[in-house]
Amino acid sequence: MANTPAPAQIQAAKQLLASMGITPEDLAATTVTSTAPTFAEYVPVVAGAVSSGALRTYGSYWNRVVERWGPRRIDEPTPTEIKQFAEWVKANTVRRRNAHGGLGAVENFIGAMRCLYRHAGNDGLIPESFNPALKVPKPRRAESLRRAITDTRLDEINETVSTTGDDPALDALIVRLHTETACRRGGALGLQPRDLDQDDCLVYLREKGEKSRWQPVSPTLMNALLDHVSNRGTGDRDEQLLRYRSGEPITRRRYDYIWTRLGECLPWVATQQVSAHWLRHTTLTWVERNFGFAVAQAFAGHAKDRDAATTSIYTRASIHEIAASVAALTNEPHPLAPSDATT
Q: Where on the tree of life does the source sit, at the highest rank (predicted)?
């Protein structure tokens, strides 16, 4: 129960209002009008300000918000309403065999709302402390079903991808790039001719979170990438590297084509929903088992844990150690690795 103000407090408030020329009736008749934009007005602003990766993740959820809440001001929804919206997203998620009951969709929706309110606070459209989406907990992330692929089955993938399809040379190059570098799909799609260091057998990868790194590759892969640029490129060193025979750059759809085809030829690929990210798991698992956690962490391009022991600052793996693991993985000498790295 709220505390009843003392008569002296009421009298002091009346005197303060009187000194300002305001009557209690003026207060009762006054309404505060919000100047916050509507979702239909503000979502496009935020969508134009985030990275392409964030837009891919959040864009479809922002579209749903505009469809359902477009005319509403962004400061109107309560945490309960956002939670109700999240449950609606969960119930209307497209069901896939490798889905986790819509939990990933809920996580992305809440992330999208937090991102939108964070931008609105930065823009001064709402108080920076006003972020109702922060009061809606994200679901606990389900354990990934991806795992390392065995050598035998990896051989099956390489054999199938290089002997089937409308462009086996392209697809075999893509699979080898992911297997050797453990790069993400975005890193492969972002690769440009200027990112190839032929002398030191390095490729420059740009991946999510605007992180980038030089990654050692085998001479065989380096030569294959250079041949690809020579045969399919336009001569522009800043263009996308991976291209069709026509010269057009590939898109994410090429990956859908590759793994759908592999699933048709290798039933276990379709059954287990294997994708390019499984190649990353495969390579990093092998590196960790044979060269230790520090090398695997650097190989993956993972940032150091801020809460990790201070010792880890001094034990981070060098590019020479990563090159040694690549030499052992591919059984080819690498210019940055010790001469005995392949033995």
A: Bacteria
